[in-house]
Design brief:
The protein contains 11 helices and 20 strands. The chain is of the alpha/beta class. It folds into 3 domains: 162 residues, Adenylosuccinate Synthetase, subunit A, domain 1 (Adenylosuccinate Synthetase, Chain A, domain 1, 3-Layer(aba) Sandwich), CATH 3.40.440; 93 residues, Adenylosuccinate Synthetase, subunit A, domain 2, CATH 1.10.300; 157 residues, Adenylosuccinate Synthetase, Chain A, domain 3 (Alpha-Beta Complex), CATH 3.90.170. The strands form 5 sheets. Strands 9-7-5-2-10-1-11-15-19-20 form a 10-stranded mixed sheet, with helices on both faces. Strands 14, 16, 17 and 18 form a 4-stranded mixed sheet that branches. Strand 19 and strand 20 form a beta hairpin. Helix 2 crosses helix 6. The structure holds inosinic acid. The site of inosinic acid (IMP) has 20 residues, from helix 4.
Amino acid sequence: MSVAIIVGSQWGDEGKGKIVDYLSENTDIVVRFQGGANAGHTIVLNGKQYILHLIPAGILRKNTECVIGNGVVIDPIAFKQEINMLKENGVDVNGRLFISENANIILPSHKAIDIQKEKKISIAIGTTGRGIGPAYTDKISREGIRVYDIKNESVLRSKIQNHLEESNLLLKNYYNDLNGINVDEELEKTFEHCKFLLPFVKNTTQYLNDAIGSNKNIILEGAQGSLLDIDHGTYPFVTSSNPTSGGACTGAGISPTKINKVIGITKAYCTRVGNGPFPTEQINNEIGRTLSQRGFEFGSTTGRPRRCGWLDLVALKYSVMINGITEIVLTKLDVLDEFDEIKIATKYVFNNEKTDVFPVNDCAAVIPEYTTLKGWEKNIVGVNNFNALPIEAKNYIKFIEEYVKVPITIISTGPDRKDTIVV
Ligand code: IMP
């Protein structure tokens, strides 16, 4: 029996989808515990690409059950689209996909407010526009609509109506959005979309804890990344949930004493999408362009180009600390194939002093110091045996392990399930 938390250790887009799918083979239940349809977890199976925004990446394994936990904010429209996409691809979700009664619902008004807020603030956060921040705002202020409310049609209808009317006042009068939202139209549509969730609704907290009692294997699948954490990330340029391991416990209703391991998914370099500090970013240069092109670094939810830079071990050590990461999965190692030299940030200069402590509130002001390692300049795409890696790639892996003092247990060398090395 094992309960493993999987977190992104950087700014998201570390390749969590592929790894969750890979590890799901021997897993009974996969649980999403935070975020919403802002995520885009990509899985490539026999050359076919699947992008999942809300549904756990375990869904492609027919014997694995999947749970959307209480910590998630669910957009019923995105959910329905994803179910349809899976159906079209012959993936049967019946009887093996459940949604927590305590999860909160994203309404069209949340998305409209998200977009208007971004236009109004002086430095935009660069959100995905999926209504995440406004939906969590309502949850925390105890004004959210919960999945449980779907069970009672009249309660649901009146809650949606109140919410849409109130949001419309805000949109029209504060954000000067002249069109606002058409309350009558959106009310009917949202009501129908919410009812679509009903067959999936379950007391997932009890279900998951019963499963732990029956020695099932469970993966708690994080979305986004640790440095986007609302409490521990580069605030305010963060998402509105806790993608760190603590968020897995609250977002699924599983006690910390039941967790056996915390797996940190780490890309072999760094990317960030949206605004906010990024110490090792390579702007307008060949390095950034190579990482972007070879890594195909475009958002899987919004299509936006991702900012690219060298691996940052100061930030990774911080992530290991706040999550209690017990093992690392290193992804996209093959993207570094062409470099003759590879840099890794091992220290920052901050206030004229060297430090290896990540100054989370001041990291826009640091200058990274790098250690340069020799590149392997060989094609390792699809290599699935550790011994077949060039010595320079092995040295890169060892350097990371020694710095953060955590073993690297899996290495990904391509998007497909089979492009994976178990160390
Ligand atoms: P939000 O989560 O849409 O509110 O966006 C807040 C910040 O998190 C923005 O910088 C987004 O680009 C970033 N973000 C949200 N979801 C993801 C993700 O799945 N991968 C990477 N960045 C994300």
